[in-house]
Amino acid sequence: MQRTDDTDPLRPPDPEAAISARSVTKRYGQLTALDSFDLEIARGEIFALLGPNGAGKTTLIRILTTLMNPTSGKAFVSGLDTAQHGREIRRLIGVVPQENSLDRYLTARENLELHARLHSMEPKKYRVRIDEILELFGLAGRQHDLPDTYSGGMQRRLVVARALIHEPKVLFLDEPTTGLDPQSRRAVWDYIRSIAGKMTIFLTTHYLEEAENLCERLAIMDHGRLIAQGSSAELKAKLTGGAVYEIELAEGSEHFTETLRQMSCIGKMEITGRVVTVHLERWECLAEVVTALNGAVLRRISLREKTLEEVFISLTGTGVRE
Ligand SMILES: Nc1ncnc2c1ncn2[C@@H]1O[C@H](COP(=O)(O)OP(=O)(O)O)[C@@H](O)[C@H]1O
Ligand SMILES: [Mg+2]
């Protein structure tokens, strides 16, 4: 009988998926950088993988872009096994690595031409394509300059532009905006948005705002494992469980903070003047809180939405990494 269990690591890739990771494990000596990692990304999706430094994001990208094989498990791009179909996959993908990797001794345009030639494009075709791309990325005026004379933001745009020359079906961006100033970051976002829909986009980032702005779906990983995935709204709802409320007490009702402090269904509580912020374990305990406040004079109770940042920190902790 055929197994249809969707946790079976040996099941074939979903034909609709642009990217599948099946129980992918990668060890560097004693260190497990990816630990039975599973992921499925649909065609045309913009997907963000979030995680602190050392979580394993680049390792996953290196496997998916065929630079490295997993220790165990399988990864597929467009239904092709990354360990067996490197050449075909490299034709289908564009890669923006974490480090810029531009040739310093070639002009911007020459960098793009070299890439086109490595992808066996005809000069007639790539000349037109390079003109278009330089225009789209606002680099046409500086195309004959060396990349070292570019700002960080322009270099990053050039690397994104280069990854798009051969019209890939799947684009990988490893921390496309790390280290950029806010303006350049926005410019890179705009270009990513302008190409969205034309291809599947997989990006890693530790800017939560970036993931939230650009992506329909995101996943959070840490220590080589996937800890959560969904839309940003789903993640916030699922992971925070309860909700955060701000309660403003009127003068004379301050002593109710003590009553709240005794309540077991309040996970965390912060007091700023007469405003008490309570983190409820479950939404049902709002009724208990309201009952406990019987007799208090209240100026306001308001629901405070958790930010993605709070979700991220609650999942991955506050410790500084690598
Ligand atoms: N070539 C390597 N050899 C040994 N350890 C590595 C190598 N590359 C990455 N690592 C380790 O694997 C873990 C995951 O790294 P990486 O995939 O680069 O994470 P991220 O991109 O999320 O910061 C880290 O602990 C890192 O130090
Ligand atoms: Mg990395």
**Large-scale geometry:** elongated
Q: Mean pLDDT, nearest integer?
A: 89
CATH architecture heading of the largest domain: 3-Layer(aba) Sandwich
Strand content: 25-35%
Bound molecules: adenosine-5'-diphosphate, magnesium ion
Counting DSSP H or I runs of 4 or more residues, the number of helices is: 11
Q: CATH first level of the largest domain: which class?
A: Alpha Beta
Detailed description of the structure:
There is one protein chain. The chain has 322 residues and is of the alpha/beta class. It folds into 2 domains: 17-237, 3-Layer(aba) Sandwich (Rossmann fold); 244-305, 2-Layer Sandwich (Alpha-Beta Plaits). 33% of the residues lie in helices and 28% in strands. The strands form 3 sheets. The chain has a 6-stranded mixed beta sheet with strand order 6-7-8-3-9-10, with helices on both faces. A 4-stranded antiparallel beta sheet has the order 2-1-4-5, covered by helices on one side. The relative contact order is 0.13. The structure holds adenosine-5'-diphosphate and magnesium ion. Magnesium ion binds at residues 57-58, 98, 174.
